[in-house]
Amino acid sequence: GAGGVDEEDEDGGGVSVERRSLTLVAQKELQGAGYTLRPFQGKLLVSVNTRVLLFAWDPAAEGGATLTKECSYTGLITALFMETHGDFVLVGDVMRSLSLLAYKPVDKALEEVARDYRMAWTTAVAMMGDDTFVSADADGNLVSCVRNLDATTEEERSRLLMSGEFHLGAMVNRFVPGALVTQPEDADAAGSGSGSGSGSGGSGSAAGGASGEAGASAAADAAEERGGMEESKGAGAGAGAGAGNGDQASAPLLAGELPVPGMPASGVKPALLYGCVDGSIGAVLRLTKAQFLLLRRLEKSIRTVVRGVGGFSHVDWRTYESHKVRREATAFVDGDLVEALLDLSEEQQAAVVKEMNDEASTAAFGEPVTVEDVVSMVEDLTRLH
Question: Which SS3 state, helix, strand or coil, does residue 118 take?
C-alpha cells in the first residue's frame, strides 16, 4: 500500500491499496493528511493529523475489496510516527512525545493506556516489547521509557517513566528492528538479563580521544542510577556504529559475545537499527546488567585518567538537554569513549584498570580485572559494529 501527503493542502489525503502489478484494488478518502501506515493484525493502521485510524480490510467484499473504518483514537497534535507490538500501538507526536494505545478487539476500540507527559519534538520511535520504548527528539537526544506497571494507582500506571536519557548529538529519523548481518539461530536465547535498554552510536566526537566516526553505546534501565525501578527488571545495553556523513559506511554489526572478566560470557542481542539525518547508522543492542555496570566503570575510569579533547567535559557533552532542562546522562555508556581504551598507551591502560579496581563495586564481579581482560572485552565490543 501507499500513502501520500499534499504539502500544499493537508486538509485532505487518501489511502490506496495496490497489487504488485500496481493495479488499484481499493482506496479510501481521509479527512486529513495520512502520515504513517502500519499493518496491524490483518488490518491497516493510519495516522491522520490528530487521529489514529484502524481500517478493516475485506478483500472478498461484495462489489470488490474494501477498507472499512473500525475505530479511531483522537487526542494528539500531529501523529507523525507509529510502531506496533502485539495489541499495542506506540504513537510519536510532533510535540507530545509518546502515547501508548491498546487495541481492544472485543470492543473494537483503541484506548490510551499510558503517556509520556513531557513536551518533546519527536523524530523517531521504537518498541522493544510491550513495556519498553525508545524515542529520539529534535535536540539530538535518545530517551528510553518504561511502563509503570507496579504502580498502585491508575494515574501512576498511565504515566510512562523515563528510564534513560543520553545526548547523541545527531537527529535520528528512523528506527527499524534487525541487525546488519545474519544472526546465529540461538541469538534469541542469548543473554541472561531480563530487562531491556537502548543504545546509540556513530555520530559526534567524544572526549578522551574517540574518533567519533564509529562508536558503540550501552544502556541499562535506570535502577542503578535513579533508584526508581526495582532490580528485578534487569538491565539492557546497546552498541552502535555510524559514519560521520552519508559518504561513509559503518562496519557490520554481529551478535557475538561480550565476556565480562571473572564472569561467564553472555550473548549480546541486537534489537534495533537507526539512521540519522547526517548519514550515520547505528544499532541498539541488549547487554546484561553485569556487562553494563562494568562498561560504566570503564567509562568513568577513562574520564578520570584521560583529559578530554580541548579540556572539554565529556559529561557535559553527553548531558541530556531539552527545553531548558539539563540532566546528566543516565543509563547510557558512551561507546566512543569506551573504545578509546584501545588507543591509549600501555601505561595509560594500566592506570585506567587500576582506577576501575579501586571502585567499591569491583567486588560484585569477583577478582579484580586485569588489563588483558578489559582490552579483550573492548576488542570484542568493537567487533559488534
Answer: coil
pLDDT tens per residue across span 304-325 = 999 887 888 999 999 999 888 9
59-114, pLDDT tens digit by residue? 877 777 889 999 999 989 999 999 999 999 999 999 999 999 999 999 999 999 99
Q: What is the 3-state secondary structure (H, E, C) of 316-356?
A: HHCCEEECCEEECCECEEEHHHHHHHHHCCHHHHHHHHHHH
Q: Could you please report the per-residue DSSP string of 238-298? A: ------SSTTS-PPP----EEPPTTS--EEPEEEEEEEETTS-EEEEEE--HHHHHHHHHH
* C-alpha–C-alpha distance, residues 202 and 97, integer Å: 24
Distance of alpha carbon 19 from alpha carbon 148, whole angstroms:
42
d(CA 126, CA 261): 32
Rg (CA), the chain: 22
**Coil, helix or strand at residue 64:** coil
